[in-house]
Specification:
The chain has 99 residues and is α+β, with helices and mostly antiparallel strands. It contains three helices and four strands; from the N terminus they run E-H-E-E-H-H-E. 37% of the residues lie in helices and 36% in strands. It is an enzyme of class 1 (oxidoreductase).
Length: 99
C-alpha cells in the first residue's frame, strides 16, 4: 500500500475558494481513481488554512495514474491562485497493522 501525506496551505483571504477546490478534487478522485482507498483533507487545529490530505492507494501504479489523471491536473491548477506556499508531499510504502 502507498500512503501519501500532502501538506497544503491557503492564503487566509481565499480560504472559502480553496476549500471548494479541495472538495472538488476529493470528490473527483474518489469517484474516478481506481485503487484509491482513502483521500481526505483535514485542517490543522493550530494553524488555520493549513491542511493535510491523507491518501491511501493500493499500489504505486494507482497513485501514478491519479497524478496523471486530467481531473487531478485541472483540480490542482484551480487551487494554484489560492496557495500560500508550495505543497509538502511525503510518500510512504506502508503496511497496515493492528494495535
Amino acid at each position: 500500500m502507498i500512503t501519501v501525506h500532502a501538506y497544503v496551505w491557503t492564503l487566509p483571504e481565499h480560504r472559502d475558494a480553496y476549500l471548494a477546490g479541495l472538495r472538488a478534487l476529493q470528490d473527483s478522485t474518489l469517484a474516478n481513481d481506481h485503487g484509491c482507498l482513502e483521500y481526505r483533507f483535514w485542517e490543522s487545529v493550530t494553524e488555520p488554512g493549513a491542511f493535510v490530505c491523507v491518501e491511501a492507494w493500493t499500489d504505486r501504479a494507482a497513485l501514478d495514474a491519479h497524478l496523471a489523471a486530467p481531473h487531478h491536473a485541472t483540480g490542482s491548477a484551480a487551487l494554484d491562485p489560492y496557495r500560500a506556499r508550495p505543497a509538502d508531499i511525503r510518500v510512504y510504502e506502508s503496511t497496515p497493522i493492528d494495535l
